[in-house]
UniProtKB/TrEMBL annotation:
Residues 8-173 form the Glycosyltransferase subfamily 4-like N-terminal domain. It comes from Klebsiella pneumoniae subsp. pneumoniae. This is Glycosyltransferase. GO terms for molecular function: glycosyltransferase activity. Keywords: Transferase.
Length: 195
């Protein structure tokens, strides 16, 4: 899951991982929260866009819960072909929505962090504003499974936000298969993965 595929590095990592899962014989769904795609999609990828059509003036106030309900509907549709064995949530906005998803509560969800959060989310903040942002981020990742692109990203999350993930793993090179411990035992011959 990702908030769109506009052409950045995280997006490329997501597609590289999806392609690797497909090569491994897994069924892969990619759910995008925006209809933006600047990359060619791997053959065999189940790509689904969940767009938000709300134009009400107060839409920002209800965005996370509304988008989580929309995501729940998309997950239910996608799981008609089989329940997800692994869910990878990419980028902070998507993580905020996935964390509120009811359909994903009992799933093997991993939040993928592609950069150092303290620099991007805390660097310009001070005082109460900084503390509030730390608490919001902590609420999303505390006690959750987190995978990072480097050890430094994981250390930053733990130290700058004083949180403890349920599990913290690092994938240095997205072209290498995921560590076995991230995957649950498949219930059928092919695993079902959503990135």
């Amino acid at each position: 899951m990702i908030d769109g595929l506009p052409g950045g590095g995280a997006e490329k990592v997501v597609l590289t991982l999806a392609a690797q899962f497909l090569r491994d014989g897994d069924r892969v769904s990619l759910i995008s929260l925006r209809d933006v795609c600047e990359y060619p999609l791997p053959e065999g990828l189940n790509y689904q866009v969940v767009t938000d059509r709300c134009r009400k003036p107060w839409r920002k106030l209800t965005e996370l819960s509304r988008r989580a309900r929309q995501l729940d509907a998309a997950v239910i549709r996608a799981e008609q072909q089989g329940q997800f064995d692994l869910v990878l949530s990419n980028l902070h906005k998507t993580d905020r929505i996935v964390a509120r998803s009811r359909a994903l509560r009992e799933r093997n969800v991993w939040f993928c962090l592609h950069g150092v959060f303290s620099a991007s989310y805390l660097g310009h903040r001070t005082g109460f504003d900084r503390w509030m942002k730390q608490q919001k981020i902590k609420r999303i990742y505390q006690g959750r499974n987190v995978v990072t692109v480097s050890d430094a990203v994981g250390r930053d999350l733990v130290e700058a936000f004083a949180l403890r993930p349920a599990q913290l793993k690092t994938i240095y090179n997205p072209s290498i298969s995921l560590p076995c411990e991230l995957r649950r035992k498949p219930t059928a011959s092919a695993r079902t993965v959503t990135t």
